[in-house]
Amino acid sequence: MTALPAPLDDxxxxxxxxxxxxxxVSYDLPNGRRLFVTTDRLSAFDRIIGSITxxxxxxxxxxxxxxEHTADVVDNHLIDVPDPNVLIAHDTVPLPVxxxxxxxxxxxxxxxxxxxxxxGAREIDGHRLPDGLRKNAxxxxxxxTPTTKGTSSTGxxxxxxxxxxxxxxxxxxxxxxxxxxxxEVCDVALEVFRRGTHRGRDAGLILADTKYEFGVTAxxxxxxxxxxxxxxxxxxxxxxxxxxxxxxGREPESxxxxxxxxxxxxxxxxxxxxxxxxxxxxxxxxxRRYVDAFERLTGTDFQPGRSPIGPRITAAxxxxxxx
Length: 323
Description:
Elements: E1 19-20, E2 24-29, E3 33-38, E4 41-44, E5 47-51, H1 55-70, E6 78-83, E7 86-90, E8 93-94, E9 97-104, H2 113-118, E10 123-124, E11 127-128, E12 138-144, E13 147-148, H3 168-173, H4 179-202, E14 205-216, E15 222-225, E16 234-238, H5 239-247, H6 258-266, H7 280-298, H8 309-318
Antiparallel strand pairs: 1-2, 2-3, 3-7, 4-5, 6-7, 8-14, 9-12, 9-13, 9-14, 10-11, 14-15, 14-16
Helix pairs in contact: 1-7
């Protein structure tokens, strides 16, 4: 993949109700709908640190694929994909927590499971973890570790903020989500995670962990929203090299943005102060990983959308019969 086109950093469409999150820009549409544009912005440590060509298209089209392939588990907000970077969805009130499902103990951020475990914690986010775990090792069973939302794709203007870890009990006890609704969310999240794990296994990948977002419609329906099992929201590891790398103390071969997180951490950046610029080779390698994940999971070739991206999206939106 050479001569990559310019990434999409932002877009301003002639539509009402503009909201900008870390990665997505969205607008109000008639009839209880919302239009989402997935940009190429890359966030790490709850900060926007650059843009990666084709990242937005991968996230948008891969999420649409997963929405279709998990619709039998839970309804979702997808209505249409009129452009590689655009999704039209049912408008919802997002739940105020992100649902993080973990199968492996890993991470480099201050709130990651591994960082806290390595510091001596054994009771983490309401879960008792056994002694003797190694970094990147499989947990005894999948666990849910919710977080608050620093920002989300459906609101917030700054694109920055810090997610705060919670236990499942905290979510209910503090009134963030009703007990019965939260029980439904957890059941659904674990089932969608199982679906992702099985598909990943068929594609030669390990789903180490992921995050889901849910919303509720005006008539009370629970919907899976935002994105699903993308390299942004999930840690995808290459299964063929996992055991060999574990045996030699190396990090798993990943098809996500964890490599960017590690590069930033190695440079001394973990979210505070100015973010170092991403080298061109890091950007290009990240593009390759995202495209590789898309192709493995969907079983289809990635077809880059026409560039420049902004005018293409503007034309696609203008062509909608009822924008």
